[in-house]
Amino acid sequence: MNSADSPPFYLAINYRRRPGSNFWYMRAPLGKNGIDKLMKTAAQSAGLQGNFTNHTVRKTCISRLMDAEVPVNYVAQLSGHRTLKSLDSYKAASADHQRKMSLILSRSG
């Protein structure tokens, strides 16, 4: 199945739906601004503080999967990255890795 055949992950709201229709959505992507608004509303509703965007949530999910040592080809498949190299920008030392590095360096003296 290519991306043109796959359904959108977020569905756009159908504001022109007919009365009595059970379908509140359209088979179309929500769009970047709509997803940003959805993320901000969801974060506020959950009582989360900070700036949450679709990209920050995407980066967090990808980073956590990589920290959990999920094979990078699986992460790329899930996130829609076409190359494994494109995941390099998501690699960062987790808090646990930073603590371990700090312990190693503190013992080296």
UniProtKB/TrEMBL annotation:
One GO MF annotation is: DNA binding
**Domain of life of the organism encoding this protein:** Eukaryota
Q: Mind listing the UniProt keywords for this protein, alphabetically?
A: DNA recombination
Cell inner membrane in keyword set: no
**Which residues belong to any copy of the Tyr recombinase domain?**
27-95
Q: Which InterPro entries match?
A: DNA_brk_join_enz, Integrase-like_cat_sf, Integrase_catalytic
Give GO BP annotations, semicolon-separated. DNA integration; DNA recombination
* Alphabetized Pfam families for the sequence: Phage_integrase
Protein name as it appears in the record: Tyr recombinase domain-containing protein
